[in-house]
């Protein structure tokens, strides 16, 4: 926990008392931003006394009043949820949608502070309460909150949010992605109540190099930063106390003899309580170590092979953003059917329910921020945006045992400006959380002299813990028959995680192994790729692209793609493709090996 992450909002909004603001919200679709700018393109909310703007949520008081919008008379959208999958007219919509929710709330304590907390809003969110602006958040996949204490009324509060998902060249992500740009209040909205001084952040993990010592850091926000704090783990009869400094921060360690470590085979979680002044938090936390030694990844000191799959935050059956515990169990359930112990949550932070369920199920996670393809590397605002998203992600999930890797980018073009940008993020990740691995999905370099020779020597690999790269040999690069001929030069003796490979297939379409989009073509790519990768000495895991078909506006082939990327092992109808069983069987070998002989040496099958 460092200065980088000075959140002024309460930690763990989902776990705190308050008011759920989910459900139907009235909405106004506003492609011309009529509710935000006047006809001179001046933002209404910039005025000291705003004269217009939908955030005022005005209603005519007299027959002569001219109010040209009405939330009361407008249709609703469900929150959480994207707007694209809720209303077919909005499927391709990119722009502004206004959301309005009325609510009553009486704080339980005289000195309480109230925060409006959002799990995420894609992409830009301007938040107003009772006609006053609370703030703006940029970035579509991380939590944020604004204080509402001074503006809250006991009844008839009007909460208005302008959400705009337009793509920006200088944005993170930038204008080109291979996923659907779902807009809206895509995750939970809550009003949380906390004491005047509250816990803004806490990090709980094993002390460095130890397996029976727990390190805790707590940071308080509020008028009285110096407070006694108590941390307890009842199941282990452990309690420890300390006092925060004038910066509101305290660190302490607890000796924990007999602590059971968290692992995929034993996803042991402990109830951990922290109390500071009048504030209390409880969370279910697992303890494990994850380090790299040479080309091995060690989980609790044991070599581990990451049997993974990539995943977008989308429920294919609904064709919309996934957001709920039920969505998480659907998606992670499919991954377990595949014999996975690992998932790459691509290409942006998924909702908190994913990591919390992965903690319970014993699934390891790679989490990533959307620094994707050609970002504006020299733009300082773009860098600040990416750094903020990383800090918000780490601030949210640093106590999740399942999360073992922070990824700072995907398939970014090698240049000095790019590497400088990404090194900054890598340094941030290490400063914010020194207990996990840091990586990025890099690319493979072709050898102009030998089409079957692939080289992995991205300069960024010098600074990451893993060498993870995407390769599409047999799909974008040749046909499946090419795969078996491939030989590699891997620049560094670090663990290799192949973060993507795969091929498109329409579920139910059957033909020869060279017929594009057939299940047999995809199956063949898997059949040939896995043994080819096995030959890489540092190969320690993979996350093929991808668990389920997903929506992408870049996929326009009629009757085949129709707006879907078809590289899933499961179709949008939930039915499995033949390649699903190829990967499942390949991963089963690891399971049987570990059952037979305990943790396997890599190729002991
Ligand atoms: C890329 C990229 C993915 C994309 C995939 C594909 O490697 O990282 O986001 O969807 O390839 O082309 O299917």
Entry summary:
The chain contains 6 helices and 35 strands. By secondary structure, the chain is of the alpha/beta class. The strands form 9 sheets. It has an 8-stranded parallel barrel. It has a 6-stranded antiparallel β-sheet with strand order 3-2-4-9-6-7, with no helix packed on it. Strands 1-10-5-8 form a 4-stranded antiparallel β-sheet, with no helix packed on it.
Labels describing this entry:
605 residues, alpha/beta, eight-stranded parallel β-barrel, six-stranded antiparallel beta sheet, 16% helix, globular, disordered N terminus, binds alpha-D-glucopyranuronic acid
Structural class: alpha/beta
Strand content: 25-35%
The major beta sheet can be summarized as: 8 strands, parallel, barrel
Strand order of the largest sheet: 21-24-25-26-27-30-32-33
SS summary, helix count: 6
Distance between the termini: 42 Å
Small molecules bound in the structure, each named once: alpha-D-glucopyranuronic acid
Helical residue percent band: 10-25%
> What's the gyration radius in Å?
25 Å
Unreliable sequence segments: 1-5, 598-605
Count of DSSP strands: 35
Q: Would you tell me the overall average pLDDT?
A: 96
């Amino acid at each position: 926990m460092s200065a980088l992450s000075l959140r002024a909002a309460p930690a763990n909004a989902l776990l705190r008392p308050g008011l759920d603001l989910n459900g139907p919200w009235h909405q106004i679709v506003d492609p011309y931003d009529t509710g935000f700018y006047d006809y001179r393109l001046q933002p209404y909310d910039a005025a000291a006394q705003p004269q217009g703007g939908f955030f005022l949520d005005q209603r005519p008081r007299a027959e002569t009043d001219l109010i040209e919008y009405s939330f009361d008379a407008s249709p609703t959208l469900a929150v959480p949820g994207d707007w694209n999958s809720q209303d077919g007219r909005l499927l391709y919509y990119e722009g502004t949608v206004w959301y309005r929710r009325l609510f009553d709330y009486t704080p339980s304590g005289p000195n309480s502070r109230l925060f409006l907390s959002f799990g995420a809003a894609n992409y830009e969110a301007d938040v107003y309460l009772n006609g006053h602006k609370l703030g703006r958040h940029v970035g579509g996949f991380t939590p944020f909150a604004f204080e509402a204490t001074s503006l809250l009324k006991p009844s008839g509060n009007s909460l208005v949010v302008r959400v705009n998902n337009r793509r920006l060249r200088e944005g993170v992500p930038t204008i080109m992605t291979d996923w659907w740009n779902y807009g809206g209040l895509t995750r939970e909205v809550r009003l949380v109540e906390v004491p005047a001084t509250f816990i803004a952040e806490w990090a709980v993990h094993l002390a460095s190099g130890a397996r029976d010592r727990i390190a805790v850091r707590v940071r308080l926000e509020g008028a009285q930063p110096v407070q006694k704090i108590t941390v307890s783990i009842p199941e282990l009869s452990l309690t420890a106390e300390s006092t925060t400094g004038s910066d509101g921060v305290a660190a302490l360690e607890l000796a924990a003899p007999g602590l059971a470590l968290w692992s995929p085979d034993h996803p042991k979680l402990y109830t951990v309580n922290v109390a500071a002044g009048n504030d209390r938090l409880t969370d279910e936390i697992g303890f494990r170590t994850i380090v790299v030694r040479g080309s091995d990844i060690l989980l609790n000191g044991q070599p581990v092979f990451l049997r993974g799959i990539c995943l977008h935050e989308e429920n294919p059956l609904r064709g919309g953003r996934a957001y709920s515990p039920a969505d998480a169990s659907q998606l992670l359930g499919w991954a377990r059917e595949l014999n996975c112990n690992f998932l790459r949550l691509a290409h942006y932070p998924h909702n908190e329910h994913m990591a919390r369920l992965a903690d319970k199920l014993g699934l390891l996670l790679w989490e990533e921020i959307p620094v994707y393809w050609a970002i504006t590397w020299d733009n300082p605002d773009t860098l600040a945006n990416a750094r903020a998203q990383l800090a918000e992600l780490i601030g949210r999930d640093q106590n999740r045992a399942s999360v073992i890797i922070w990824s700072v980018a995907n398939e970014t073009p090698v240049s000095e400006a790019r590497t400088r940008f990404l090194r900054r993020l890598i340094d941030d990740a290490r400063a914010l959380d020194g207990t996990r691995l840091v990586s990025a999905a890099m690319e493979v370099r072709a050898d102009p002299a030998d089409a079957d020779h692939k080289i992995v020597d991205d300069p960024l690999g010098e600074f990451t813990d893993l060498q993870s790269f995407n390769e599409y040999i047999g799909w974008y690069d040749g046909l499946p028959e090419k795969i078996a001929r491939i030989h590699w030069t891997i620049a560094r003796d670090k663990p290799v995680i192949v973060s993507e490979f795969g091929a498109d297939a329409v579920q139910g379409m059957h033909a020869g192994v060279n017929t594009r989009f057939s299940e047999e073509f995809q199956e063949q790519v898997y059949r040939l790729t896995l043994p080819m990768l096995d030959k890489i000495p540092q190969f320690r895991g993979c996350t093929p692209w991808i668990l389920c078909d997903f929506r992408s506006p870049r996929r326009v082939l009629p009757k085949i793609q129709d707006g879907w990327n078809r590289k899933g092992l499961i179709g949008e109808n939930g039915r499995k493709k033949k390649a699903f069983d190829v990967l499942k069987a390949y991963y089963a070998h690891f399971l049987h090996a570990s059952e037979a002989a305990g943790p396997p040496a890599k190729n002991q099958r």
